[in-house]
From TrEMBL:
It comes from Anisakis simplex. One of its GO terms (cellular component) is cytoplasm. Transmembrane segments: none annotated. Residues 21-229 form the Trafficking protein particle complex subunit domain. This is Trafficking protein particle complex subunit 11 (inferred by orthology to a human protein).
Amino acid sequence: MHSEIGDDDDDNDAIGCILLQCSMFADLFERAVVNGLAAMSTQHPGIHLHASADHLRLANELIDSMRSALSLSSSVADHLISPQPDPLQSQQSSWPTVVFYGQRPWRVSTESGGGLADSITENNARITLEQRCMPNHKRCLALLSSAMSQFKKYKCVRMQRHIMLLMADEYAALNHHSKALQFISHVLWECRIEKFTLPISLLLSRSLMSSFFVADLKEFVSSSVQILNIHSFPSFESISAHIAMNINRIRNAQPPLSPLPSFQLSDAQLIACQQQWMNVFSERVFFSLSAPRIDAFVRAHASFLCTEQAIASGSTLILKVSLYSCACVAMHFERLRVNVSDASTTTTNAERLPMFEFLSENIELKPNCETNFFYELNLDVNEFLETKLIVVSGLNLEFGSLHSCVYGTLDWEFTSLTMGVPESAYRTSMLDSRIGMPSIKVYPREASVRLEGDLKGDALLGQVANLSLKLVCDENEVLPERLRVEWYAESCKEDVPSSVQTATSTSTSITTAQSKSSPLLFLNSQNKLIDSDELCVDIASLHTTETPNSPVEV
């Protein structure tokens, strides 16, 4: 048979004979294993099933190329009419039954003498074979599925991924793009986990194609923002402008153009795909992408510009957010949202409400440049009555708005923001310096206020006592509007202790001693009793000076 190989039909028959041998040997091997033959990860029936599928894939490629050449041939009209009688029917009385696999039925009577049939019969047979020869992707899928089960049985993990990628190609050839996208996404995710970056560029291209055909907006944008990262995938630099244009069309609720510039769609395919995309845009679409996990073209870093790890409340803190674009084209986003939260609580990120939220509109990221944003945090004393650990809990770059047809976000969390590089990035430097603190402790401010004067006084039971006190503030700030004075009496022979507490928002107090309190009676300016154990003094009515450390008489 090999000596007669000269055209594509003979090549296909030769490949078909080899794949049939591999498939039959795999079945024989499997029966032998069931009967007790030893098998291992390097020698088992799955290897031969894989070889059989590879030969069938090669035959399918030859058939596709042959049919493509026929469609462009000038004699295509000759192939539209099937020859009569059918040259492939060997049941006729004039033609004996074939003897071996691949034998041409119209040559059985003449091959004994080494000759061929007449030219008309040979030409009709060639035309019939070319018309009926079709790629068999379903059989290839069956062989790959059987090989996959064997690779799972013998724990060949990487070969499983290779088979999944081949199955994705076969599903794409059958126009089952949703199934192909599932296999590609799974293999892509496992390659990211294992830092196996070599096949990622190929997987991204195939994911972009399959998601375009099924109008999967999230997967299409996810593949696009990874392709734009030319630091990780420099081979995509030539198509970056085309990818960016498709992203902008999606932001405006318009169907994207061809996923890749080199991929040409027929008119029927283009109309069908555009109709699918318009059906998607007929409803509001929301999606969210974790930028560090997919190694998007934007790298974010957030830090507090402070030299100390702990500061007091009431001060001002500067937050720096850096966005570095690894794309070679300018990219636009509608909004940048930054959330600062308290990490000292035990709630999860989803339940934790942000203490501060900052928004920046109309974000433009220039190619291969770092864009910095600075935000001012006023640490209000009311929010920090106890020590808190504040961190940048989330950062979002938004596509569109909440009221637009398409709304999506690129998200970063605390861990990735402190590192400044994505989890899956492999072209990073350990010398990449970052300034600032990833987290800051904020503790309540202690008021520098003290009492001077007659802090101790003796009085008989029922006697009205007068004490002259001076409140001295050592801070360069204004005194609070009201002052609460608390008096305590001890049932002992020691001096009477007292405490003064300023009615500020921080509830800061100065206590001379701690004691068990007993009820006291207070008189107001009209010498009438006040039914309370505390006395409030209006600071605004007192005479104070503008200089710091000035005493106030009470």
